[in-house]
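Annual report, structural modelling task.

Input specification for the iron/sulfur cluster complex:
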Amino acid sequence: MKGINNKILKVNLSKQSSIIDKHNDNFYRKYIGGRGIALYYMHKEMEAGIDAFNPGNMLVFANGLLTGIPGPAVPRFTVCAKSPLTGGFGESEAGGFWGPELKRAGFDAIIITGKAKKPVYLWIKDGEVLFKDATHIWGKETGDAETQIRSELKDQRIRIAQIGPGGENLVKYANITNDLRHYNGRTGMGAVMGSKRLKAIAVRGTKRLPVAEKEKIVAVSRWAADEGMENPLAKGLHEVGTTASLMGNNEVGALPTRNWNKSYYEDAEKISGERMQETIGHRPGGCFSCPVRCKRVVSVEKENLKVDSQYGGPEYETLAAMGPVLEINDLSIIAKANELCNRNTIDTISAGMTVAFAMECYENGLLSKEDFDGLELNFGNGEAALSLIEKIVNREGIGDLLAEGSLSAAQKIGKGADKFIHQVKGQEIPMHDPRVKTGVGLQYALADYGADHMKAAHDVFYSNEDSHGTRTTKAVGIYEPVAPESIAEDKVRLFKALDNYWSLLDMLGACHFGFVPRGAVPLDKLMQLVQAATGQDISLYELIQGAERATDMSRLFNIKEGFTAEDDKLPEVFFSNIKNGPLKNKGAIDREKFEEAVQLRYNMMGWNDDGVPKKSKIFGMDLEDVVKV
Ligand code: SF4
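The model returned the following structure:
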């Protein structure tokens, strides 16, 4: 098969040794890439029930099948491990340039086990692997560490995936950054890297990735850069990025505000994406071979509040989690919070939601000023929020408790503190309200790695016949629109199909914002890329089967770790009406109908009423040898 290297690098940090695994083409057709490859190894070679910080935990960096080909919006790679935040399957995708560079350096994936005796980084160049001492950069923020690594390897073109102090200090929602501004956020993969004393992986490849039909791939790239960029969705992402969602969500009355106690923020305009562009916006940023360039880069030059543009800028999730959720209406403070999280590698959604939880505990007298070392942690106090983020990164004072995640912190605080957390499987919820898009709620409840907004396209893309989604994804079996607030059987069917398709994009390394229904590139062009890259007659049916197979595998991973149907719950707040704004006194999700929808989804997947994949499904997916029935 072309488009891949057929080499998976296995690294043991305890022994400072490495070997290479090879498979036949069928392996890649069956497991595709990303989570498919990771789950194959995590089932086959990892002991169930170990602690996430046990050296036996497997940290897998896996490219998608298309990552690094010269096609549009295919930069992504996945990092998986047992999550220290949820205790189950952890997974996170990132864009940038690191994944494509790893492929050029000769590997499709890296599987890391063990724990180094002292901090190390890996240096991978054109198939060679070296273990380098990282003692002198352990404790450094990511910008300084990157400068140091580049200068000692004497190559400014290397790409570096790394952790900052948040990962080193085992903050359970620490992430991994590459090129300082692209992130494997969520589920604490950076903490697993920190537990292995692995500071960074520097990669450099000087060879071209072999593909079967380069001209066909380049033709799709040209189409995407010209006609594709005429699409309003692609244009909007380029001009304002995801930050446009802030005003959109506020206008409909579904912008999480004051730790989800409100859904409309009076000061939203002060922190809108458009305002950010006019005031602190620097330039758009992007990923390997992508014409959309949706990312934001900001800088602030205020006295005592400088924000360094090398760490990028807030996306919608961060803007909301550090803005309305904390009732902070100052863009400079939000940009600083984003930069603090980024340079220290902690997830901005979990950090914002954990600070919001602490604020609500403070305002309700569960925690005092003394508990925060003198900080007055009222909603709206931006300076206090910044100080608390630094405490979390360094596990200083109460930061040590909050670094464990909001669920764990609430359990330790007691006194009813759990009223103020909003999470699924221990992971704090993202900034989209299931009361106005119930499919997103289903995905929050069912995602094996905890609440995540990137588990499927959102309901709004299927709201009527003319919606971009309804028009563009018929080839994956989606024919009819479904109302965003409906939680009936047709919504369950829609989101089963979308879950498979979205998982497939991840496993291909394709960005959700590049391809339909969120982006412009249509499904037939996606399939042209797959076939032109690999030179094989791979079908869409086969790929969707592969995506569903991976979902069965992640479900089975969690079952081995003790998860049950009880863990597939939506936070309580969504079963109550919205409290202010245009949707005041409306929106509560019908609990009974939601529970019926979860049951129906289990059964549609070939799982029993307890959410366990049936033996027939496991055999049907040809998984019996992998998951060891
Ligand atoms: S659309 Fe945005 S996130 Fe996706 S590949 Fe392009 S620049 Fe990166």
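The first strand starts at residue 8 and ends at 12.
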